[in-house]
Amino acid sequence: MNSKTLYLLKVIVQNPLKEYGPLLTQKPLPQGITQWFNQRQRSRFWRMAVRLLQDVIEVLIILATVIIVILTILYAEDFLKSQTTWGNSFIKSIEKSRILGTFESISIVTALVVYVRRGKKQSQYEAWQVIDSMQGTEISHARIKALEDLAKDGVSFKGLSLPRANLEQITLVDVDFTEANLAEVKLQEANLQGCRFELTQLQGANLGQANLRESFFLLAQLQQANLGAADLRNADLQGVNLLEANLQKANLQGAYILGNLQAVNFQEANLRGATLAGAYLKNASFQNTNLRGANLKEANLEGVNFQGANLNGVNFQQAKGLNPKQIQQAKSWQQALYSKEFSSQLGLL
């Protein structure tokens, strides 16, 4: 059992949420989780590297500007001294102070850098003031701008409480929403790539068409949430509660999903290569869904609708509650992987 699995089990034990139902009795996560975790970490590393590079470039631009100003004034000083009598007299009158001396130059540069840094802290403080003042307000463009500015500075949103807020089309990349309250929040078409939603409340949230690629959901509450047409490619949803959530036409290619997925709508979604091993999928709908190469091993599939779904290469071994009638409503069911006993029931042996 790897360290990530142990961590998840520890969180479940320390946070016994009643909503998880069957999840609490499931077996440990498969070893394949390491692959998804490492891939997500690499992507996050490169985005952080780009952000750091942007900060370095910002400082270098400030230094370059100061150097250019200094060189320009030095050139003007030499020109005035050599070309005009009045200019030479003027320069001599202030030469004893050497305004552009080494010490003064360093002081100017230092002052500018400190000013920029203090300005950033002040802007962050003002941004939080805007967010706090908008508590209870559903729509606020100022709040959206404040949140985006804080996210660009790498500020964590742990414990943030913004229930029912309207944050449509907001851009918050690689943000930590651990234990945040985002119940019924409107995040349609938002860019939330690489975000962390650990123990986050997202019940009834609208994430339709949102970019959630490579995001990490750990024990997140997503009951009746709308994720229709959302981009969840390579997302990691561990121990999530998606009871009656809508993921119609969502892109979950390569995603890892483990949790309560009872009555979830996956109609016309793309789950190619996704892992749902051990998931609780009672009465879920995969109508016309692309499940090619998906892993449903040991999943609870009682009452699941597979009508028109592509089951080519799907792993159904040790799945629970599955019957031949469910499977035969789908496409390419003959190319799926079943236990020997179930293959016999399907007439494949």
Give an overview of the whole structure.
- Strands 1-2-3-4 form a 4-stranded parallel beta sheet.
- The chain has helices at 3-14, 33-83, 85-95, 102-133, 141-152, 324-327, 340-345, and strands at 196-198, 216-218, 236-241, 256-260.
- Helix 2 crosses helix 3, helix 2 (33-83) crosses helix 4 and helix 4 (102-133) packs across helix 5.
- The chain has 349 residues and is mostly helical.
- The protein is 37% helix and 5% strand.
Largest sheet: 4 strands, parallel
Tell me what portion of residues adopts beta-strand conformation.
Answer: under 5%
If you compute it from the alpha carbons, what radius of gyration comes out, rounded to the nearest whole angstrom? 28 Å
How many beta-strand runs? Answer: 4
Distance between the termini: 35 Å
Low-pLDDT segments: 1-7, 9-33
- Report the average pLDDT across residues: 80
> What overall form do the CA principal axes indicate?
elongated
